[in-house]
Specification:
- The chain has about 475 residues and is an alpha/beta fold.
- The chain has 3 domains: about 5-65, dopa decarboxylase, N-terminal domain (Up-down Bundle); about 100-345, 3-Layer(aba) Sandwich (Aspartate Aminotransferase, domain 2); about 360-470, Aspartate Aminotransferase, domain 1, CATH 3.90.1150.
- The chain contains 14 helices and 13 strands.
- The strands form 3 sheets. The chain has a 7-stranded mixed beta sheet with strand order 1-9-8-7-6-2-3, with helices on both faces. Strands 10-11-13-12 form a 4-stranded antiparallel beta sheet.
- Strand 2 (about 170-175), helix 7 (about 180-190) and strand 3 (about 195-200) form a beta-alpha-beta unit.
- Helix 3 (about 85-100) packs antiparallel against helix 12.
- The longest helix is centred in the last third of the chain and has 35 residues, at about 350-385.
- It is globular.
Amino acid sequence: MNWDEYAAWGKKISDWGAAYHQNLRDQPVRAQVAPGETASLLEPSAPETGEDMGTILEDFERVVMPGITHWQHPRFFAYFPSNATPPAILADFLVSTMAVQCMLWQTSPAATEMETRMMEWLRQAIGLPGSFSGVIQDSASSATLAAVLTMRERSLKWQGNEDGLSQHPKLRIYCSGEAHSSIDRAVWVAGIGSDNIVRIPVSGAHRAMDPEGLRQEVKNDLAAGYLPIGVIACTGATGMGACDDIAAVIDVAQNFDLYVHVDAAWAGSAMICPEFRALWQGVEKADSVVFNPHKWLGVQFDCSAHFLKNPEDLVRTLAIQPEYLKTHGQEGFINYSEWSIPLGRRFRALKIWFLLRSYGLNELRNRIRNHIKWANDIADQLRATPGFEIVTEPMLSLFTFRFLPKSSGDLDDVNQSFVDRINDDGRIYLTQTNIDGAKVIRFQVGQFDTTQEDVQTAYQVICDTAQQFGS
């Protein structure tokens, strides 16, 4: 393909993209294919000669599209949507066209300096003080791993990378039972081991970790010869939106000189609205904080905002400087590859710049406030509908409920069948989780183009499905 052909096909693909988003409501939200169905349509080996782009795109429609779950569907109420807005998509179009690698300042000065400024914009937008510096990671999981590695090195006097862990006491990390599974993976990769995650009991409507329980567990571990290294607190955990009392957790952690990382991957976007910041009161005392603009703010995956009180600790943990990565003859710059685990880095800051300039913070706040209001509205409707109970009240735009049919049977099995039938119907998409050992249904409003009518469609689908169960 030459560049003239690229321009022609690029226009066609842009037109396809606009039509795709405009007509998503006509598609089932979740892919309706069986395992192996897509693979059976793909040739077992690569072609020896090139093919026409028209043929390739026809095959794209035939092979790929039936097997796509539509994360941009306005009736996607599962997980947390990875949103994509027109200006952010156009920014990534430009980034892909330039195909820059932004590992060092010198490999793309504009990308580095825009990343610094965009993290300042985001920091200000969510109300964090100027004592924090920021870096864009690919995901909150990577930010959590970076935090765990920093906890490890800090506690071992910066010797763990050289000495390994075998000659040191067992390290201990603390979180609640509601915390994300990425913590488990982080401690695996860091060599700490999941047996050394201490899960603190939760209580209250926010299912927050018990600060006194945390204090006692740290004391117990110290007495047993373990080395406590850090706490991972959450604001808006994935299951039901659990929010720890950040201020109380940090007060305990500081008594033991423990590093505190706050995982606000989903809920952090809502902090652009000042009225919701009480949910993470005390966050300014944390050592690091992460939230994902790609979850609720409107930039597509991947784009995770990682803020650090002392970035020097992270650099000391991760930086490697062979001669070929050094920049000579320049000063006053940042090499963000020293702030992240991968050496290679995409130009993610551009889509933040396009998004914030295109919509402005006021429009983004309005959308988040609407999502929260609509989630509360449908929770109230289900509360008033026979055969349903609200298990956890709305935390921002996320709540959980349970289907209680008149017919007997194991309620966990019934609720799983209920979710499966809803998703097979295709009009909406929901997921399940567990609360205190019981299976419940998650409902979260967060897709960028969702309307109040879409939320009401969800209520009708839920009621229609209940009718099928004879409730």
